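Reminder to self: tokens first, then the designed residues, so the page reads top to bottom the way the pipeline ran.
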């Protein structure tokens, strides 16, 4: 089966989950259960506002927040691989320093 990807977006400089984010994570958790997926990649990203070092940490905090919510929804931590890419893999390429909502995200990939 092809991988299924869920995108969770974040407010500027934040790692807390919005109601919409929680809904998407709930959908992903349900898909994990219904499809019997055993490998889940949780990858955090940031936009290019702020230093690369700061954004690396921010993207990790975002990934951890999503992983914690997946865990709360019954998904085992050992099924997840959690990664942080900082500002290195934008969905929308921008100049440095640019705030871009699409790049402030966590990707949940069900393998």
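Designed residues (111 positions):
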């Amino acid at each position: 089966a092809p991988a299924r990807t869920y995108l969770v977006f974040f407010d500027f400089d934040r790692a807390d989950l919005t109601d919409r984010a929680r809904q998407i994570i709930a959908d992903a958790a349900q898909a994990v259960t219904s499809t019997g997926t055993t490998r889940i990649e949780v990858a955090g990203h940031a936009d290019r506002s702020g230093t690369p070092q700061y954004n690396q940490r921010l993207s990790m905090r975002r990934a951890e927040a999503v992983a914690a919510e997946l865990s709360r929804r019954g998904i085992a931590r050992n099924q997840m691989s959690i990664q942080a890419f900082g500002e290195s893999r934008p969905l929308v390429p921008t100049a440095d320093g640019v705030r871009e909502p699409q790049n402030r995200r966590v990707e949940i990939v069900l393998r």
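The two ends are 8 Å apart (CA to CA).
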